[in-house]
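Mods, move this if it's the wrong board.
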Amino acid sequence: MAKGKRRGRGTPEAVVAEVDGGPAELLPDRERANAFTLLIGGAPQSHVDLDDPTYLDFSYQRRIGHAIDLCAPARQPLNVLHLGGGAFTLARYAAATRPRSTQQVVEVDAPLVAFVRESLPLDPTARVRVRTGDARAGLAKVPEGWADLVIADVFSGARTPAHLTSVEFLDEVRRALSPTGWYVANLADGPPLAHLRGQVATAAARFGELALAADPVVFRGKRFGNAVLVAADRELPVAELTRRVASDPHPGRVEHGRALADFTGGAAPVTDASATASPVPPPSVFR
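Not the wrong board. Structure tokens:
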């Protein structure tokens, strides 16, 4: 059961609950009237503005939002599969920017799903179906060629599980995607970027076109952070993606082509047999 703490005039200060991933807390955004940040185990996971679901506060979510915008003509409905639910921020965004889209969300943490549904209800007119279960198992149930877009944003204890980092996992992603579909993944890594390089090499083994968006300091291996990988078997609108990422409140950089291939530094694709979870973020990341 979610419990709320209250401050003056009866306004909720925080809503807390225990979920499988640890203590979950919804903190109100002091600058936006009906917006909240979801923290799990003290780590920020998602930000939601119920009054304006097109507002994306986190830099990595803005970059995924750019991919949602660019993968098809504006407002064209899509079939979207979200692996990892959080507070359903990206599903809300896609529903608002691409009305009549059909979306599936697979989230392993059933108490978290219940907590978010109760505290931050989805628009009842949005075509969003939420399933509880393992992301890879849920992916295997998606009909072949159904998805125009697969978004992977899965973290357990602030780490991406190993079985969602391999070429075998991407084989399942490709099976679920339409021939023109895009795969977008939120990755997290820090110096020496071995995990990120391996994930780019893994995607390059299964997709013909790649782009990677991140803060410049992350690319340089100076700081732990997020990187958004975009992959497809058709030409990506790299110039427009680059422009949008560079114009964000926290400007980022996009690498592609030869520069991105060089970035991998000869890393080998990851297999189920060699896969490991993404690195543990340093405590300073969440300060």
